[in-house]
Structures are given as structure tokens and as C-alpha cells.
Amino acid sequence: MSTDAEYYFNTKTGEVEEGKPSSWTHRMGPYPTREEAAHALERAEQRNETWDGQDAAQPGAFDDEDD
């Protein structure tokens, strides 16, 4: 097995794939290990929660100033 392998999480099937066998529209990654790819959705959810908290801490930071 190559050490240069890249793993992707397929959002359509819920499976981890080595390489790019599926459409880019259903892939998250690349990740260096199968384990990291398997937790792609959890990682994305954690990041979203962090960013949502940062947005809430900065009221008006993303309001459209042209309105």
C-alpha cells in the first residue's frame, strides 16, 4: 500500500473511498488516513459550530452595509 494514498468521504454513500472513484460533488477530502476520512462529517459539524459561535460573538459583522 502506498504511503501517498488519499482518502475521501463519500457523502452520498457514507463510505470512505481511497482515491477518487466517485464524483467530486459527493467527496469530502482528501484526508491522509481512512480514519480521518471516516470522521469527516463530525469534523465539519464541529467547525460549523465553532464558526457559528464566532459569528454570534460579533453581532452585525456580516450584515450587508449597502441595505
UniProtKB/TrEMBL annotation:
Residues 33-50 have a biased composition (Basic and acidic residues). It comes from the Bacteria. This is SPOR domain-containing protein. Residues 1-67 are annotated as: Disordered. It comes from Luteimicrobium xylanilyticum.
